[in-house]
Write a structure and sequence with these properties.
434 Repressor (Amino-terminal Domain); 17 helices; single chain; Cro/C1-type_HTH; mainly alpha; elongated
Length: 300
């Protein structure tokens, strides 16, 4: 693998920058020459200044430094979620088997996430495995969650249900929201945290409905509506509309909910086969259960 200096040199040359443009005010010309040859190391503060001068993020630099590849655990997590959205349980099983035997915590977290996604596909509760418990303990022991923990923390909700610790769900949600607020800028969302929140709210909404916690489920729409749509990716916007549609099916205007669902299904039908099987599966289940709820509560 190239040294940091050699990678900086490669990027500098690709972009057509002179050494003076990149290193001025950071290091001397002679030091820069040795740095680019892999002979000198520099502090993180200096590296960040250099990356700013190169107009490249630290994440992209790491990607290039790693021969244009994501960290292995990150790549496996992305593959796992893609397989889940496509209901490709065979691929999910292979990824779980590949990661659950690793000693590295990042791999164990992927295994735990995969196990939860697979079992919740068939059942609302499950047996908590050692990998899941380890992830639970690790996240609860952390007073502050970085992006890595935020992207894993959503799976604490189904674990809490399966451990019969539903009373901890409000605490989990509050910690999730508080940690997310540190990354949400006043006018921007550079780390796509709004999508993480929307993903959490969709899981929380379904858990509340499954547990017949209808008062809590009704309050979800307020949280969902407060997220800035401009900060959401298309996936996040679809989830926002899905939550809204299901909320209408249960608690609002059924016709309004069905009309919104028809639009969501039309979007999914632009692709054949569908890209997101989960969205369609959620719609089919909730349409049936919402009718039962309305009949039982005489809301029609």
């Amino acid at each position: 693998m190239k040294t940091i200096g050699q990678t900086v040199k490669m990027i500098r040359q690709i972009k057509g920058f002179a050494q003076s443009e990149v290193y001025s005010g950071v290091m001397s010309r002679s030091f820069a020459h040795r740095f680019e040859n892999g002979e000198n190391d520099i502090s993180a503060a200096k590296l960040f200044k250099i990356l700013d001068n190169l107009s490249i993020s630290s994440n992209e630099f790491r990607f290039i430094q790693n021969d244009y590849q994501e960290p292995a655990a990150t790549s496996l997590r992305r593959r796992l979620l893609r397989a889940y959205n496509g209901h490709d349980l065979q691929t999910m099983g292979r990824i779980i088997d590949e990661t659950k035997k690793r000693s590295n915590l990042s791999y164990k977290s992927v295994a735990a996430m995969g196990q939860i996604l697979v079992v919740t596909y068939y059942s609302k509760t499950f047996t908590v495995t050692p990998a899941m418990k380890n992830l639970w303990d690790t996240l609860f022991a952390s007073k502050t969650w970085t992006l890595e923990e935020i992207r894993k923390a959503q799976i604490l909700l189904p674990i809490a249900v399966s451990r019969h610790q539903e009373k901890l769900i409000p605490e989990i949600v509050e910690r999730f929201e508080n940690n997310c607020q540190k990354y949400l800028g006043a006018v921007d969302d550079p780390f796509h945290i709004a999508d993480e929140l929307m993903d959490l709210y969709l899981s929380l909404f379904q858990i509340d409905l499954n547990l017949a916690q209808y008062h809590s489920a009704k309050e979800i729409l307020t949280k969902v509506s407060q997220l800035n749509t401009l900060d959401l990716s298309w996936a996040g916007r679809l989830q926002q509309q899905l939550i809204t549609a299901i909320w209408e099916l249960y608690f609002g205007g059924e016709k309004k909910g069905l009309a919104l669902i028809a639009k969501l299904v039309a979007v999914e039908n632009l692709y054949s086969p569908p890209v997101d099987h989960n969205l369609l599966a959620i719609i089919n289940v909730r349409k049936r259960l919402a009718q039962q709820y309305r009949k039982a509560n005489h809301t029609d």
